[in-house]
Amino acid sequence: MNKLIIVDSVSKVYTQGSSSVCAVDSATFEIEDGELILICGPSGSGKSTLLYLMSGMLKPSSGKVVVAGRQLNGLSELEMARFRKETIGFVFQAFNLIPSLSALENVVASRMFDSEKHQKRAQEILESMGLAHRTQHLPSELSGGEQQRVAIARALLNDPRIIFADEPTGNLDSKAGKNIIDILKKLNRKGKTVIIATHNPSILNGLESKRLNILDGKVQESGE
């Protein structure tokens, strides 16, 4: 497999007044195309920050992140926006759906200027996730598991090469959480690189994956 993501001596430091917090501390590792990755650590360990750095949503304080051959540190804001649109999909723990829009509208919301082109694909993705009968419902009318499936559908709209999922089961009960993990595993089997941040390393038990453990910003790699 090809090296898809290279994280080289990456640190992220947040400064608050006279104090500084190192959320990610000199992380170095590589992720290959098509891998299934777990980033494991307790709350506050830096795993979400690490996801944001790899997805280009944050810039590192030092070191470099290379994704699909592009060094993210050197991209302009316009280039970064294009990179995220073409290369990644991001699934948030809190769903981040727009309350006033239907499920279908939420999936195509970021592509409103070209919504006709994307609406058919959005409908197909929602149907593939068992939401054909829920496309016109508002988020408040959906269960937590349904809202997260809408969020995944939104992340898949542009057929991204990489899917980042930040605690995707954190706000769900065990049954709904298992359904979300099953969807992410299926996407990985179809060739997507899937990177999941979680405090629960058992969510992929019995499945071949690579695990990155993070504690106090320090990253260590271990196989599962």
**CATH level-3 fold name:** Rossmann fold
Radius of gyration: 17 Å
Order of helices and strands: EEEHEEHEHHHEHEEE
Assign the structural class, choosing from mainly alpha, mainly beta, alpha/beta, alpha+beta, or little secondary structure. Answer: alpha/beta
So what's the CATH class?
Answer: Alpha Beta
Give the helix tally: 6
Brief write-up:
This protein is 31% helix and 30% strand. With 224 residues, it is of the alpha/beta class.
List keywords for this structure.
224 residues, alpha/beta, Rossmann fold, six-stranded mixed beta sheet, four-stranded antiparallel beta sheet, 10 strands, globular
Write the layout of secondary structure elements.
Elements: E1 3-16, E2 19-32, E3 36-40, H1 47-55, E4 62-67, E5 70-71, H2 77-87, E6 88-91, H3 103-108, H4 115-128, H5 144-156, E7 162-166, H6 174-189, E8 193-198, E9 210-215, E10 218-223
Parallel strand pairs: 3-8, 3-9, 6-7, 7-8
Antiparallel strand pairs: 1-2, 1-4, 4-5, 9-10
